[in-house]
Amino acid sequence: MSQERKYEGYVGVFDSGVGGISVLKELVRELPHENFVFFGDSANAPYGEKTPSQVRALSQAIVECMLDQGCKAIVIACNTATSAAAQMLREEYPDVPIVGVEPALKPAVLAPKHDHVLVMATPITVRLDKYRHLLARWDRDSNVISVPCTGLAARIEKGHLDEPDLIELLEWLVGDYRGKVDSVVLGCTHYPFIKPQIHKVLGDDVPFFDGGAGTARQTRRLLQEKNILNASDAPGDVVLSTSKDTPEERALYQWFFRRDIEG
After folding, report:
1. What is the pLDDT of residue 56?
2. 73 — phi, psi (to 5°)?
3. Per DSSP, what are the bridge partners of residue 238?
4. How far, in Å, CA of 147 to CA of 169, rounded?
5. Closest to 183 in 3D by CA, of 119, 139, 138
6. Residues forming beta bridges with residue 80, ordered by sequence position
7. Known catalytic residue: 65?
8. pLDDT computed for residue 263 by the predictor
9. Stated pTM of the model
């Protein structure tokens, strides 16, 4: 992020790349008068295939930069960074509202049809204790199938989501579960952008669950508790930035922000 521009009163939102824009869109919908600055660390993406210590170091550097520039709260719009770094960041900055995102396993197993739940996530997310604790709490009444989707977030980072190679990758990762699961938990914030492609592989009748809307509601709650909601009635400002600061990458971020997320 540039050190020249200050973001006093903004909510800082970050991810390993473009995926967190799916959460940003939920935040803007829930909090239309808030100002947001989004940072995607595309130069270091994907986080889901790094070590936990690498993810913690990258996340802390981003949060320090955002706080130095005046952000009033932080949203970790990345399942991997939440799993690896959220607790550390909350201990490091106890006075700052820090909201994370996690796989929406709870609503999936509480849904009327929940015998077989497929969780698509990054390799590091399914390995870390945070996910294992979540699984232990909510898998008692469901057969939860956890699939580490190696390479999927990195592929989504490239855009061109209608190309055949993306379908081929999904077929390789989850094609064996077509007709065998009741729902799919999208355990990476990149994945909501490819719901149509996942439907092509798993079937049109499979419902999706992801944590973006819940993260937005929790952000509202914490801002209210801290009495730091934006009092303005005007539409908020949204700034998109990335560590891979090229015209092509900035255009890609804008494309993802404008893109509708289908059901």
Report:
1. 98
2. -155, 160
3. 36
4. 13
5. 119
6. none
7. no
8. 60
9. 0.94
First to last CA, the chain: 32
Looking up tokens 């006075």 gives 95
What is the identity of the amino acid at 241? S
- Find tokens 């064996």 and name the residue: 176
Amino acid making up residue 6: K
Bridge partner list, 118: 145, 184
Q: What are φ and ψ of residue 188, in 5° steps?
A: -145, 140
The encoded tokens of residue 1 equal 């992020």
Average pLDDT across each block of 10 residues of the chain; the chain has 263 residues. List them in order. Answer: 72 97 98 98 93 97 97 97 97 97 95 96 94 93 96 96 97 98 97 97 96 97 97 94 95 95 73
pLDDT at 1: 47
pLDDT at 5: 66
Torsions phi, psi for 46 (to 5 deg): -95, 145
Specify the residue for token string 């990195």.
154
Res 140: pLDDT: 87
- What residue type is 81 in one-letter code? A
- The secondary element (H helix, E strand) that includes residue 136 is helix 129-138
SS (H, E, C) 161-182: CCCHHHHHHHHHHHHHHCCCCC
Positive or negative, the Cα torsion across 221, 223, 230, 17? Answer: negative
Give the closest residue to 125 by CA, choosing from 186, 67, 181, 204.
Answer: 186
Give the separation between CA 36 and CA 12, rounded to whole angstroms.
6
The one catalytic residue in 65, 71, 78, 149 is 78
- 71 has catalytic annotation: no
Question: Which tokens in the block code for residue 230?
Answer: 């934006």
Q: List strands edge to edge, sheet with 208-209.
A: 143-148, 116-121, 183-187, 208-209
DSSP state of 37: E
pLDDT of residue 262: 72
Structure tokens at 191: 């994945």
Q: What are phi and psi of 159, to 5 degrees?
A: 75, -155
